[in-house]
Design brief:
Strand order of the largest sheet: 3-2-7-8-9
Distance between the termini: 67 Å
Order of helices and strands: HHEEEEEEEEHHEEH
CATH topology of one domain: Immunoglobulin-like
CATH architecture of one domain: Sandwich
Number of helices: 5
Oligomer: single chain
Radius of gyration: 22 Å
Length: about 170
């Protein structure tokens, strides 16, 4: 490769490093989240951290959600499932830093990717979980005279701030 080709390659590489962040290139600023329920056709509302309704549909569907709530601020969503004759369920979707943002910018985006491009586009975040499936319990009718109802949920659906209060039973 002659000096002219090396110069052209260096120029292209420099432009790429200055104009993009690794996570922005790989994943973009929004994420598709699959929303399902058992039974199907539950009405779902998805609200962001400001309690603004961003999606309202019946299951099953796929929602396209913004990863970011602003510069260096990941978004959080509350997903509420409702169906007549069944208990309501709520799932929280949180954002966490993307592996592409953390490690990818070492090789491709550099400081511009870490501090400007990926935080501004929201691509520095991933939403977790990326698939939500609620199992709705049938509610007993008032005529049944049923007592308290025990709800069992997977540990992965318990918000992090409540996990410290959990008691493990064997």
């Amino acid at each position: 490769m002659n000096h002219r080709n090396w110069g052209l390659a260096a120029l292209i590489g420099g432009v790429l490093m200055l104009s993009s962040g690794c996570a922005t290139i790989v994943s973009g600023s929004d994420e598709r989240v699959s929303v399902n329920s058992t039974p199907d056709e539950a009405m779902v509302e998805i609200r962001n951290r400001n309690n603004r309704l961003v999606e309202r549909q019946q299951t099953p569907f796929t929602a396209t959600l913004d990863r970011s709530a602003g510069y260096f601020r990941g978004e959080t969503y509350t997903v509420t499932f409702r169906k007549e004759g069944y208990s309501s369920e709520e799932v929280v979707i949180r954002s966490r830093p993307s592996g592409w943002y953390l490690a990818g910018n070492l090789f491709f985006g550099g400081l511009i990717g870490w501090f400007i491009v990926d935080p501004l586009t929201g691509a520095m975040w991933v939403l977790t979980p990326d698939s939500v499936n609620a199992i709705l319990d049938e509610r007993p009718s008032q005529a049944d005279g049923a007592g308290p109802v025990l709800h069992v949920i997977l540990e992965e659906h318990v918000p992090d701030d409540l996990r410290a209060e959990m008691i493990r039973v064997r």
